[in-house]
Design brief:
The complex is a heterodimer. By secondary structure, chain A is of the alpha/beta class. Chain A is built from 10 helices and 10 strands. By secondary structure, chain B is mainly α. Chain B has a single domain, classed as MetI-like fold, CATH 1.10.3720. Chain B has 11 helices and 2 strands; from the N terminus they run ααββααααααααα. In chain B, strands 1-2 form a two-stranded antiparallel ribbon. Chain B is globular and about 70 Å long. The mean pLDDT of chain B is about 85. Classes of the chains: A alpha/beta, B mainly alpha. At the A-B interface, helix 2, strand 6, helix 3 and helix 6 of A face helix 7 and helix 8 of B. The complex binds adenosine-5'-triphosphate and magnesium ion. The site of adenosine-5'-triphosphate has 13 residues of chain A, from strand 2 and helix 1.
Chain lengths: ~250, ~290
């Protein structure tokens, strides 16, 4: 059974038609990697899943997105519950203007956890899961902005895990990081997939090869091809996919 | 050839001295005020001048306490009215209002900032003063309506546009990612505004409020028209007061035959200048600390 089902999704900014009739199924507890050249609409696709897109002025969205067979764009859906279910790790880490501890505790607090002991547990558990605990356990009270960019990204991961999502959406989570930090994040994501459904957007093909179970290729707003990692990387059906993954010019 | 060089040299010197003169104007004004205020400080110790309540220029008694209190209460009241209203207003404009509405409201608020002080004063006399008088009578308080309350309300209305337009800019400059991070964790819009956006914008908003009020200190005209101008320490918001600015504006140039009167008034001006300077320094400090 698929965790997320996208059917005929169209998105335009004003009269700029960005996503064109995208249909894609995302399997549960696997890493699905979306690849494609810059500006083809990967971030747009990701944000349309947790409805962050609709905050932008002048966006038009049509088509359907189902999560656990429930329509995301149903007017009856509680958006905050929906977003809680889908953690987002964005292109550049953005720590909230508060301490390391408070960053991780932010989500649980919002959703009603007040007890100090419980919060301590949540913070430690998720910082460990994100591979950051050892580095920050002695300075949980210092501002999150004082961390390095790589640490900030892992903090953002811990923050997103702290609300117990089912799905993690990652928008080039490693593009701002050095190879070492990037690898750390990747390892963490690979470990997490037993418990979460993970969608990763990237235009780094080597990274995609390492991480992916499933791959979708987007080109100029169209989903050209999708399938298992082997099928896409070793036996692409479409000429455009073949060219893109072999690094030939796609123009 | 030589003429061009001479002109070049002269024009540079002229520009340099004009720039220097303008930048030293503040220092000059402060020094001038100090020199003028010195005679009275030599006769009466500054501590007594600031704490005495008896204002009898003809007897040579210049107690500034009632005027300081007048200034303080009017400003304090205005802040209490202005801060919550301005905050709610700027949050709505920057976070909730649809783009089209924002495009209409923002210029409208900037327009308010351009209205001359006197117009606000007239509005105060015609609308605020009678309203206070009638309302107070209904709850058995006798007042002329010319009062600290009237001054506070008029001053609050005058600082709205400054505080709102600066706060809106500050809130809008909070990066989009801040909202996105919070919302993607399942926070509501209000939680996001309260816990993330306002927190990030806080130093800027404080600076906006201080900026608003240090300008308001100077806006004598409107306040002067509605506070009643009685040199007394006000004991309730329905009583008349006499802020420092009003004292200077009403009397400078008229009562100067009285010995030391002008020295006293210029001391008042110096005190005002120092207060405003202090405020703007505080604003700068807060902004700097927030910038880190
Ligand atoms: N808020 C917006 N308003 C107008 N156009 C936008 C907006 N956001 C994105 N776009 C346009 O939509 C298209 C897709 O953008 P998107 O950010 O989804 O690309 P991307 O695949 O994530 O690119 P990258 O790999 O560089 O991050 C681009 O042409 C972009 O210019
Ligand atoms: Mg992107």
């Amino acid at each position: 059974m698929y965790h997320i089902t996208i059917k005929g999704l169209n998105v335009s900014y004003g009269n700029h038609h960005v996503l064109k009739n995208v249909s894609l199924e995302i399997p549960r507890n696997k890493i699905t990697v979306i690849i494609g050249p810059s500006g083809c609409g990967k971030t747009t696709l990701l944000k349309s899943l947790n409805r962050l897109l609709e905050l932008q002025e002048g966006v038009r969205i049509s088509g359907s997105v189902l999560v656990d067979d429930e329509s995301v764009y149903d007017p009856k859906v509680d958006v905050t519950e929906l977003r809680k279910k889908m953690g987002l790790l964005s292109q550049r880490p953005y720590p909230l203007p508060m301490s390391i501890f408070d960053n991780v505790a932010y989500g649980p607090r919002i959703h009603g956890t007040r007890k100090r002991k419980k919060l301590n547990e949540i913070v430690e558990k998720n910082l460990r899961a994100a591979g950051l605990w050892e580095e920050v356990k002695d300075r949980l009270k210092s501002p999150a902005a004082s961390l390095s960019i790589g640490q900030q990204q892992r903090l953002c991961l811990a923050r997103c895990l702290a609300v117990s999502p089912e799905i993690i959406l990652c928008d080039e989570p490693t593009s701002a990081l050095d190879p070492f930090s990037a690898q750390k994040i990747e390892e963490t994501l690979s470990e997490l997939k037993t418990d979460y459904t993970i969608v990763v957007v990237t235009h780094n093909l080597r990274r995609a090869r390492r991480l992916a179970d499933y791959v979708g290729f987007i080109f100029l707003g169209e989903l050209i091809e999708h399938g298992g990692k082997k099928d896409i990387f070793e036996n692409p059906k479409d000429e455009r996919t073949r060219r893109y993954i072999s690094g030939e010019s796609y123009l | 050839m030589r003429v061009r060089k001479v002109i070049d040299g002269v024009s540079e010197k002229v520009m340099c001295s004009v720039t220097a003169a303008v930048s030293f104007l503040v220092v000059l004004i402060a020094a001038g005020l100090y020199l003028k205020a010195r005679p009275i400080m030599e006769i009466t110790p500054i501590k007594e001048l600031l704490t005495s309540s008896s204002w009898h220029p003809l007897k040579g008694e210049f107690g500034f306490y009632p005027f300081l209190m007048g200034t303080f209460w009017v400003t304090f009241l205005a802040m209490i009215f202005a801060i919550p209203i301005c905050l709610l207003c700027s949050i709505y404009i920057s976070e909730y209002a649809p783009r089209k509405m924002r495009d209409v409201i923002k210029p409208l608020i900037d327009l308010l900032a351009g209205i001359p002080s006197v117009v606000y004063g007239v509005f105060g006399v015609l609308a605020v003063v009678p309203l206070i008088r009638d309302t107070a009578h209904r709850i058995n308080i006798s007042t002329t309506g010319y009062s600290v309350l009237a001054g506070g309300i008029v001053l609050a209305i005058m600082v709205f546009p400054i505080i709102i337009s600066v706060s809106v800019e500050v809130i809008q400059s909070v990066p989009y990612e801040a909202r996105e991070s919070s919302l993607s964790l399942g926070a509501t819009q209000w939680q996001t505004v309260k816990k993330v956006v306002l927190k990030k914008a806080f130093p800027g908003i404080v600076a906006a409020i201080i900026l608003g009020f240090s300008r308001a200190f100077g806006e004598t005209m409107a306040v002067l028209m509605v506070v009643g101008n009685v040199p007394q320490v006000p004991h309730s918001i329905f009583e008349e007061a006499y802020p420092l600015t009003a004292l200077i504006a009403n009397n400078y140039g008229e009562m100067l035959s009285v010995p030391l009167y002008d020295s006293a008034l210029l001391l008042g001006a110096l005190i005002l200048l120092l207060i405003v300077l202090l405020f703007s320094m505080a604003a700068r400090l807060i902004l700097m600390r927030g910038g880190r």
